[in-house]
Design brief:
The chain starts with a strand and ends in a 17-residue tail after the last helix. The protein is α/β, with parallel strands linked by helices. The protein has a domain of 140 residues. It is built from eight helices and six strands, in the order βαβαβαβααβαβαα. It comes from Cupriavidus campinensis.
Length: 222
Amino acid sequence: MPVVVIANPKGGVGKTTLATNLAGYFARHGHAVMLGDTDRQQSSRAWLGLRPAAAPPIRTWEINGDHIARPPKGTTHVVLDTPAGLHGWRFADVMKLAHRVVVPLQPSMFDILATQDFLTRLADEKRVRHGEVAVGVIGMRVDMRTRAAEQLQRFVEGLGLPVLGYLRDTQNYVQLAAHGLTLWDVAPSRVARDWEQWQPILHWLDGGAATQPAAPSSPSAA
């Protein structure tokens, strides 16, 4: 049972956006997916409360921010949303469960600096070093024409971690989330550009090798 952890100790970087859309992808493909939320704000659980009954089901378990449990029997895929400031015993428990860790990161020098120690710690984790857990970074709200995008790619490459993809800043995510929906719950023509950006990410999450996105070229001033 694959467990995908969405983690970054910095708040406001798009963890819940990634977690809900990934859970929606698994649900769309008929998997018994569970979306766990270890954040005290319980944003993912609140989103599930908005999800239409006709949409592919996504379950959650009764859990709070001070206790991380294993999902119940029958679950085939787990997506775990985590809080800002993830550290200590909570970080250790999450890493025991994880098969893949996805780190959303915005192309801001402030975000990069705030996440640097966390990524270094992830790379040094025993299960990561032994190949039991794979770690990848996703650039969030990225305009590939900017110098900021180029800086983000250089930073992540320097850590020896793959950049799985870049997701643009679009109202699609905001508007769908307001109705408990994901990119996979609407007509592909409505979100075609976003589906395309997700393909290398999904390939890696489904067990494929990371394929490096095209490097930013001819950036303009950020």
